[in-house]
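Instructor's aside before we start: the two examples that follow are unrelated to each other. I chose them only because their records fit on one page, so don't look for a connection. First example below.
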Amino acid sequence: MKRLILSLIIASIVISTKAQKLNVAAAANLKYVLEEIKTEYIKLHPKAKINLVYGSSGTLVQQIMNGAGFDLFMSADNEFPLKLKNKELTTGVISTYAFGKLVVYSTSLNVDKKGLEVLTESSVKKIAIANPETATYGTRTVELLKKMKLYDVLKQKIVLGENIAQTAQFAFTGNAELGFIALSLALAPDMAEKGNHFIIPENLYSPIEQSCVLIKTAVINTEAIRFKQYILSAATKGIWEKFGYSVQKN
């Protein structure tokens, strides 16, 4: 009996320890905002160990389907989490944590003053967008360009980034005169200091409803549950808005 009790205690300790390690698969547009949220969270939970892995939502979904060891998926939309749910790879509900915004960014052109008119200027040789096959912001960019009847005109100038962070890098380094990126990246200190951006009217593309969901694991990860709750709480509202996101809180 004593051995049984000791075994249960040890098992409980092991589960508790595992719960302190959290692997988060996060859309690349979250690179800066999520680091700040993580910092604030650890102030409240000093023992928490959170590993943030960034990439395009589609690529991360594929990794999860292939058995990558993630506990929480933070997507750039609500469609990719649904794919995982349909494969029975998630647990709990899919929750919207923020609404993203699309911008056009440049270090060499005054897009903040000219807006989308800059797209047809002869000085524009390359336009960077995220791969629409795997990245939500890329999908919305293609939608926008087609709605403006500019996609066929500009498609020869388009260069694809693997994700929105790489797309931002193309524009930041001048490898592309223009980049369609997330507002959250355009507001990052280095990006904002070197370039300027124009916020695209949200009626020109489908809403970027960013959602998260817990990944089904062999052992319930209590840290993942707690971190997700924190992300959705009013405590993070100011951080989201600081990086240009819209947040709907109860």
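Example two begins here.
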Amino acid sequence: MTSTAPAKLTITAYSDPGFTSKVGEPFTVWMNPTSYTHNTQVGYNDRQAQGSSGPSPEFNRVSAETVSFELLFDATGVVPVPSGQSYSNGVSDAISQLITLTVTLNGDIHSPNYLILSWAQLQFQCVLESMSINYTLFRPDGTPLRAKVQTSFQSYTSETQLANEEGKNSPDMTHIVIVNGGDTLPLLCYQIYGDSSYYWRVAAVNNLIDFRNLQPGTQLLFPPLSGSA
């Protein structure tokens, strides 16, 4: 019976927060991590009335999720390297590729790349939070042959994607809207605030000179406005 090798964890880099413009080729790990930790935190404000017998915490926010794991690189010949990588410089070249993709500043966006971790059910949009490299075996000339890389990634979601996913209709929340064909500013204001007369305030916030001719695909910010229905 022919066996199929298990899928390897890949790290794909993007130059935009919408995860549409890839940077280079995805990085494939040499060996899948033996485990990973996925953390999620919910933040609450500590509220407790004077003299009460217990707290009444008030929801504040859902904090960023994190995924952390350890990667093992071994250039002793025991582990086959992924396509496009080699043992020639021990583990140095592979780790340099990983650092360039995840840590190094991308001059086009003035920050490190945005990343997607892909491994079976794990599909995680993120940015690198931390990386620690421990070299444990060397050639006589000092070339590292084995390394353990501790990594931690923090989830990342663009403001536009957050607004679309949350779908909140409350007028006291900030909204980001992508203009569709046929949309008008008064109509959008009525849908969000329940009052079309707020169009001039939204036009000012977005520096719109000609609010009567909205271009499809334009991103508009609808801030909380006092007095809205």
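Helices lie at 92-102, 159-166, 185-193, 199-205.
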